[in-house]
Every structure is written in C-alpha cells, then in structure tokens.
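Quick illustration, no need to memorize.
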Amino acid sequence: MRTILKCGDCGKYTMKDVCVCGGKALSPKPAKFSIEDKYGSYRRKAKIEIFKNEGFL
C-alpha cells in the first residue's frame, strides 16, 4: 500500500517517489514519538543555531 508523499522542493503532494518538478518526495508525517529520543540534542542545537542566525536569540 502506497502513502501520499510531499515534494521537498515545490511542496506539492504526490504518490510517486519523484515529483513532476524533479524534486524528491518525502513522507509528510513527523517521526514516531519516543521517550528515549536519540536525536533530540541534535535537533535542539540546530534550532538554536537557526534562531541565532535569524536574530531571535
């Protein structure tokens, strides 16, 4: 069973792995929740860097 995918470049939804614009289609669903979040520290560091670059911090 196929699921709907979202293009990373143009934001359109498709059922194919490659969008008509040529961009890669990815799953629009968030990652599964886990109490033992292996990558949480990396996500928080990346978010802080983004906030600093945009002048929010």
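DSSP finds one helix and three strands in the chain.
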